[in-house]
Amino acid sequence: MQTTISKTLTFHDVGLHSGADVTLRMIPAGVDHGIWIKRTDIEIGETLIPARWDRVEQSPLCTKLIGDHGVDVSTIEHVMAALAGCGVHNVLIEVDGPEFPILDGSAVPFVREILSAGVMPLDKPIQAIRITKPVEFKTDTGWARFEPADAPEMSFHIEFADEAIGVQSKSMNLSNGSFVRELCDSRTFCRNSDVEIMRANGLALGGTLENAVVVDGDKVLSPGGLRHADEAVRHKMLDALGDIALAGAPIIGRYVGHRAGHAITNMLLRTLFSQRDAFEIITCDSALAAILPGAGAHLDEVCAVA
Fold this sequence. Notes:
- With 306 residues, the protein is of the alpha+beta class.
- The chain has a single domain (3-301), classed as lpxc deacetylase, domain 2 (lpxc deacetylase, domain 1, 2-Layer Sandwich), CATH 3.30.1700.10.
- Helix content is 21%, strand content 29%.
- The chain contains seven helices and 21 strands.
- Helix 1 packs across helix 2 (108-117), helix 1 packs across helix 5 and helix 5 (231-244) packs parallel to helix 6 (262-273).
- The mean pLDDT is 92.
């Protein structure tokens, strides 16, 4: 069945790139509403933006959406991952600024609140997108591919020169709350030299050692070190799930990413939807709905974060 959250949830923090204070509210929504974002700090004009793949404006550091009349919002990927990973299909998100709050740099604070409030079923079956043939998008630096599979699956590979990250790979089935158990607490990461460059250019003003994993060669500068030995590739998978959620429905198939980022994943979605024979829209019966991401997820499964 389609779902929504059972009550309004509120989050307050700074934006990662701007450093400005921001408040975000998730509001329950009805059948077939989907996920929409409303900028409450803008009083004149159209301020609603659909959380959809064709509203993505290419941005090097995050996923940014833009509405029909130029209103935009960025850094939406962690919230989208939390909603997808908890199996939430319908919600209105209100935010009083141009960027979502970063919190601890992962999706776990959003996941905890969503599952604490409860996910409420709605009286209509959920539709899904089934991949029917392989589709790929490639650049000089990386690539991503959708492949047919019987369940939502993901494989990811990264390569970084910094020894603290290095080469990492991970594959997993995303069914039944595995995102909640294995991925949701993994934080965004960056190199210390990149942080210095970004700040010199007026970016990453809200970034701290508390809301990102910062590495310098073989050293992890963030207090407490890593939450997982392979936290970097897990976070890449978290980001990819959030970006894939912009498809507008759960995807039954395998996503494979090789040194892929936000732009590559979005271009993969654009490539998929340009090839009508590469997918089909299906109405999920109870058996198929039971293996979607978030189906059956419980609060006591959430990654334990110190």
